[in-house]
Amino acid sequence: MAALVMVFWLWLAFNIPPITPSGRGLSHHDQKRKLASTIPGFISVDCGATLQNYDDSNMFYQTDTGFISAGVNSQISSEFINSSLNMELRTLRYFPEGEQNCYTLKPEQGRSNNYLIRAVFMYGNYDGKNQTPVFQLYLGVNSWTTVKDSYVVHDIIYAPLTDAIQVCLVNKNNGTPYISALEVRQLDNSLYQSGNGALALTSRINLGGSNKIIRYPDDIYDRKWNHDQKNEWIPVTLAPNLTIETSNNGYKIPDKVLGTAVKCVSGPIYVSWQSKFTISKFYVYFHFAEIEKLEGGKQRTLNIRFNDFYNLETLTLDYLKTQTVASFALTGETTYNFSISSVDSGLPPILNAYEIYQHKDFYRMPTIEKDGTFNSLVFFFTVLVTYCFLFLFVIYGEEMSDFDNFSALSNISVTLNFSILHPDVHLLGSITQSIDRSNSRISSSTAIIESPLEDAVPKALMEKHNSGGLTLNLDGNPDLCLGGSCKVKNRKVVAIVAPTVSVVVFIILCALAIYRIREKKRKGTRREWSLKAKNWRFTYSEIVNITNNFKSVIGEGGFGRVYHGSLTHGIEVAIKVLSSSSRQGSDEFQNEVELLLGIHHKNLVSLFGYCDEGGNMALVYDYMACGNLQQHLLADGSTNVLTWKERLEIAVDAARGLDYLHNCCKPPIVHRDLKTSNILLSEDLQARIGDFGLCRVFTTENETHISTDAKGTRGYVDPEYYHTGKLNRKSDVYSFGIVLLELITGLPAIIKGPPVEELCDWVGPHVQGKCIGDILDPRLESYNINSAWRAVEVAMACIPSVAIQRPDISYVYDELKACLKMEMASEKPQIMEGYQTWSSSSIHTTPLDPKVEMHHTC
């Protein structure tokens, strides 16, 4: 059967015409068209041009034939055309039909490379209506911005996950969408890191120069630099016979930009902007070059502060050399204000240029619209995969129902990805019925809708949810209609899973089902014990037997001692037994049991079971062979010291587990006592967060905080939470920042004196000193300097005393993954471009990551 299906798919693959974003087939000539450009890494498209390809303003432009097949060519009104107007602005393409129309650009360098993507719009009253349209601009399936001005240029920096970049214009019934030009410029991959999203340009300013826009060929990346001047700023210009050294700076700022600057003798230089939403996230890049020859060989030292409370950087400028200072993620404000002041009052502050970007979170996977035949094919395979999943689920249900204690499994989470289904699928009713039949002993079930659904939740699922038989987690679907009268849009189906993948998944799942049946017969005894062990309620006598009469103590905390134990068949467990003198009691015990029975994640401790009998309370966990993180960091001697890579891996694991609690559990869960002793390590050093006794679950997903008595451990407790009693997710972020500082420095959260000092107070002056050797654990023999500084910056971003100034843990997680990637790249035999590695015996130097190039070794 599988072979026949595969043959059927291959036949269709060779007979269905090529697909374009607008759903129409292109001619053979257009299929073979290769993006041409005289500049490597550049694509320039004149949208709506009727002439052949041409050169204009030092740029080679192509017509948009072959990039899109929908739309109508037009020219702006003659009253807007003059000799100074660039050719690409004189024509446009507008789209009177279709809700969404997409250009597809395919850079030769392919996916996962950093690109600057520019969309240019000049209305020019082309339709004689003298009314500028308003429409949405999308990058793939993710919202980029709203186009509403008669002339506007939108820049965004993005590393696509596919070889094709789609720029889409979406009609919102407020005028016909149009576009004048599209441009793609490849950037160095070490620049403008955007994590799981993109950076949309807010402003890019050249200070002290003329009003003329600076771009290619002066800027090798074709960034457009605009001019700004305030009354209190004094322009400064480099002497014409001098040049600026830029080889040490990966941003490659043009000489024409760095050769001009402004200074302010009456006080600091201020850079400010407004945001409509406090949840917006910004990055700012300051570019400096000393272009004044100071008397007596003096050097200008500058202090950059954010909103008058955070010292972003203190740097000393070298004559005719450039430096770039990049901020951490800025969020939680409506007004952002940077001040650049001089440490030496005799030398006024100076600034050459700056860039501000807004981070766009791109959570939706890239998609390509397909025609009706293709959608039918995808739907056909989707049905096969779905029923195969149910077949497998039924097998598991029947297998588990053979065991007496299967009823103890009270929560089963079923993850269904409906993003590949047709919006009108009526299969969902039978799916929920199948789940009911295969889980007759399950008290509740959860369907997690992980990928975006279109328009509305299917009726069958909503009815099941409303009856209490199914819990829906609709995270990532902000625009869904949840019930009542829903206006269904006439949308084209978007498929994110190719039929070939569906076939493979179908075959694998069916093979897995057969394998599980055979495994049940071959290893029935072991399987039965594993299932019985999970969530088992133990008697106190069983606890005594498992621990060999509490023989081996492996830890101790506020709850009581932790003992090593062994279940039947040699399964090792850790048993935490409530002490009669414990300050914690049954409330914390019950809280931890209920919480761990309902959540499951590879970076959270696994609960095997519990004992609650006659005042004897114990928790039975999966045994973590390497103890907790605190034991490793505070161990005496230099043997078995965690390497920098191992520390980053532990940090990434812990951040992933915390991100699950904060952003995947609905409503969110706040740990409230995160510390190194509560981060446990498996034999392969995989980190899992433990000790959930103090956890608090938010009442609703949108709740901003919980008012409660402050609890936790000194040195880790959020100062704002401690003083106000208002607990929120950022309280955990503070605690995680302290854990991260412990990983970096090897010091405890409370440094024993004299004087006694908290780690967060100790590290501040050392960070300002900009010497990584004074901060990192001296036992570390080698580390990547860029990775280390970036980790320090992430930790410092987590520990401001005000919660709103801290990032979300998802951002921290992404940044730590980037740190780990840097470290792993530098461990390869060859020296990777863009990294600098420090070891006790030597220094290997290549161009630094510009984000941290202002730092130095000692």
TrEMBL record:
Bilayer-spanning residue ranges: 374-396, 493-517
InterPro entries (alphabetical): Kinase-like_dom_sf, Malectin-like_Carb-bd_dom, Prot_kinase_dom, Protein_kinase_ATP_BS, Ser-Thr/Tyr_kinase_cat_dom, Ser/Thr_kinase_AS
Pfam families, per database record: Malectin_like (PF12819), PK_Tyr_Ser-Thr (PF07714)
Sequence positions that bind ATP: K576
Record-annotated Protein kinase domain positions: 548-820
Membrane topology label: Single-pass membrane protein
UniProtKB keywords: ATP-binding, Kinase, Membrane, Nucleotide-binding, Serine/threonine-protein kinase, Signal, Transferase, Transmembrane, Transmembrane helix
Superkingdom of origin organism: Eukaryota
Primary location recorded for the protein, binned into one broad class: membrane
Signal peptide: 1-21
Chain coiled-coil ranges: none
Protein localization: Membrane
PANTHER family named in the record: OS07G0107800 PROTEIN-RELATED (PTHR45631), PROTEIN KINASE DOMAIN-CONTAINING PROTEIN (PTHR45631:SF212)
Protein name (record): LOW QUALITY PROTEIN: probable LRR receptor-like serine/threonine-protein kinase At4g29180
